[in-house]
Amino acid sequence: MNELAIQMTGTQPFMGKEIPVVLGGFGPNARCICDKTAAEIHDMSTRHVRELINRNDNRFTSEVDFIDLKIVVVRNDNNSESAVGLLESLGYTKMEISKAEHIYILSERGYAKLVKIMDTDKAWEVYDRLLDEYFTMREQKRKEFQPRPGKTESQLAAEAKRATAMILNAKNRTAERFQKLWDRANVKPEYQALALGSLFAEDGVNLPRIALQGAKVTYDKGTIAKKLGVYSKASSGKAPHAQAIGAIISELEIDPDEWEYVPYSHNGHDGIDIQYADCVIDKVRAWLAAKNWPDTISAGSKNYPVLYRREGE
Questions:
Q1: Is the model's pTM score more than 0.70?
Q2: End-to-end Cα, the chain, rounded Å
């Protein structure tokens, strides 16, 4: 077990779960992930993860892609308390350790192969996030490659170039996953281009201007509420009332060319939103004026108390 130098150094929040941070096994301080954690973040059983690895063992290389802790740690260490204690620190119970034929930890490369076998949009989305938030790239980017003793300028430049390439590769995979979802949601190419432009902006990747042709200016319901000064009474007039605007729009006749499906990314959440052209703002303003700017906006059984503010107040 000393040769592997595997250790659990704490936990880290990830997708609403606390996952163990596991170092070693594949190199000094190399992060790895156990099959139990992989199963939890992909919403499947640990047994299913092990079956995927076992059925595709020709794709995995032992001690490069995975290490079987049941063999290498428990059996070779004569089932010592320290060996069992390591596995318990990773979340395995004594019964799970006793009954399991295999207990795998996966390197970053091994985990990538596992996700490729799963080959679902959700699996790739989780993989991209785990790559950014758990494995190496975020730390590499944050360090910005400060000079290290014994490193030449050319070596440092090569390291920085490799890290930039890794980050762009991860973003390319993310973009591919999103584009599949956007295509299914019938998001027009020009709006996909706008979203991708935001994703790659900090890397100095500028999309050609022709890719943006045909993209009209659109607004989400929150922005329309802010432009018209419609704010939530429950927030004492601090928050634009997007739901109230949605209630008004549900009462209006909106032509197909007055709205678009647009990708969005906000507070760590990504998805598709319906946004509206300038003329819809005019229609909402006219509706409010015809109702004499009511204190409560209703739609069906829902009532939305509102306050009105001028822009800049």
A1: no
A2: 65
Going 135 to 110 to 202 to 162, the CA torsion angle's sign is positive
Residue 169 token pair: 């590769």
Tens digits of residue pLDDT in 119-143 = 777 788 887 778 777 775 444 444 4
Residues of the chain under the 50 pLDDT cut? 1-3, 76-80, 137-147, 209-213, 266-269, 312
CA distance 143 to 82: 34
Nearest Cα to Cα of residue 276 among 209, 233, 228, 208: 228
In this structure, the number of other CB atoms found within 10 A of the CB of residue 165 comes to 10
- Quote the DSSP letter at residue 220: -
Radius of gyration of the chain from its Cα atoms, rounded to whole angstroms? 26
Helices (H), the chain: 35-41, 46-55, 69, 81-89, 94-99, 108-118, 121-133, 137-143, 153-184, 189-200, 221-228, 242-249, 278-290
Instruction: Compute the distance between CA of residue 284 and CA of residue 123 in angstroms, rounded to an integer.
Output: 41
Nearest to 166 by CA among 14, 174, 266: 174
